[in-house]
Amino acid sequence: MSESTITLRKNPSRKECENVIKKILMTEVLERGTNEHFKSASDFMSYFQSLYPASSSLTKQVQRAVKALNMPKDERGYFIINKTEAQLNQDKEIAFLMSKCNASLVPLEEYETVFLKASGQYLDYLFQLLCESETFADKIITMIKTSNGVILYTNNKHQLEIMINSLINR
Known about the structure:
Blueprint: H1 3-9, H2 14-32, H3 45-51, H4 56-69, H5 85-100, E1 112-117, H6 123-132, E2 140-146, E3 149-154, H7 157-168
Antiparallel strand pairs: 1-3, 2-3
Helix pairs in contact: 2-4
């Protein structure tokens, strides 16, 4: 028997098992968008048994690798490869807050911008008044305060410019 044949028949190290498990799960996620097949160490055994002789030591090695990876599971019990437990908890908190805030994605490409140049010590107060203004409530989608003014996003740039100019020219 050659040395390479002996190496192929030897059980992999725990680290090698971890790397293979990560590759399997990443491939699953890349192909399907999510893991839909792997819930426990036994789900990886058919792959390892195709490369190494089936034995209790191989099973234990794969179990140790899965345990060492310390992968969180989704609500259905499947391993999540690309997030830690802390990330999952943070994602749950973000999702909870988004639902409480009625959050939704709004592409800004649909809106036009207007820059209101303003400087000085009253810029913060001007920004606050614009935020609270009933006059501008339906004209301004959102605003960003900058070092020398305010960027306004609107769906009617022309009307907003007329309104602002009428106040500037008073």
